[in-house]
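Extended Data, panel c. Modelled sequence:
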Amino acid sequence: MARGEDSHPIANHECLMSSTLTNLLLVDDRAADLTVLETILAPLGQNLVLAESGQDALRHLLKTEFAAILLDVQMPQMDGFETAGMIRRSERLRQVPIIFITGVALTDENRFNGHAAGAVDYMLKPVNPEILRWKVRWTQIDSYIQRHSAAKFSHGLCPECIPKYYPGFPMPGKKL
């Protein structure tokens, strides 16, 4: 297998390699960063939909189904955390995996806020292309398993459940 190809057996399983394109939503207010993400993800052969703001992302989500969302954290008007929160409030969109991609320092508080907002992962720019492609493929595998089995996975923890399962754990927006 060539370098850069998925070597995990399930990653290339015939059931996952559908002839139907999967939509991936890429959200970043910087055109150059969207171009980088497009270039990195093009080898996956998926339909890449670009959004330049949180509001633009929400408009796309109203009319199109997505397998995953790659979401910048620091954007004007509506940041990635707020955008993710709005996405998670929708029953139809609640299970769409969100991967935060940011140039902001990866502090514990930022990572916590990202996961509390429903992200399955949090990556720092500049991203490693092979790792990003693997993470996107893994979200597709996870989604496939959930659709075709009774297995349920939860990558995020809703703010209401944090005090129940982790008493004393600081809530989003509070210092850790």
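The longest strand covers residues 119-124. This feature is highlighted in the accompanying rendering.
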